[in-house]
Amino acid sequence: MKISRIDPEAETKAYIANVMATRGAQLDPDRRALLAEDLRSPCYEEVAVFGAFSRLISESRRGFVVLDTAPTGHTLLLLDTTGAYHREVVRAYTAEHAGRITTPLMRLGDPSITKVLVVTLAETTPASEAAQLQADLRRAGIEPYAWIINSSLAATGSTDPVLRPRSRRRPGPRCSRRRRAA
Predict the structure, then answer these.
(1) Contact status, residue 143 vs residue 135, Cβ threshold 8 Å
(2) Mean pLDDT highest for which of 6-20, 86-100, 126-140, 141-155?
(3) 61 beta partners
């Protein structure tokens, strides 16, 4: 078993070092300085993280890959970037080559090799965020396989006097409700 984590800062540093060592190696000092300045643009973090994301997705050919993401803008940006990359690759290749290419989005959207599990808490806000993530995934052509609801006591059948009322309670925010004075 191997556990990986995409560290945007580390991926960006590695990407920049690689570009400077390859493309920058042949440049004169002024052009090398311009390249280094260009690489400080925030878009290169997206490129570096996408590269790491793609490498992880490609490991699914050899075994199980579990990607733990939160429904954040960064995760959705990865999906958008994956979609843009997919469209560009498909556009660039003729029908002759199209059957031999596999983009990260194609891997994510193929239910024979990818099972997307949406995991959430049994609370209103996390569940609504998970529902939005599912809608975003579907727009990207990825159908979630299943939902996992953490911290749910509904199916336990508990007879414990403390847990029983909690298992009947509907998901919602964990805050007390105050009555208004009449």
Answers:
(1) no
(2) 6-20
(3) none
- Name, in order, each residue with C-beta under 8 angstroms of 161's C-beta and a sequence gap of 6 or more: none
pTM of the full predicted structure?
Answer: 0.54
C-alpha count within 13 angstroms, C-beta hemisphere, residue 59: 15
CA distance 15 to 45: 9
Answer whether 105's CB lies under 8 Å from 134's CB: no
Higher pLDDT, 63 or 173: 63
Name the residue with tokens 């970037």.
81
CA 46/CA 125 separation, integer angstroms: 28
Q: What spatial distance separates the first Cα and last Cα of the chain, rounded to whole Å?
A: 61
| 154, 122 contact by CB (below 8 A) | yes
Residues in CB range of 173: below 8 A, 6 or more apart: 123, 124, 125
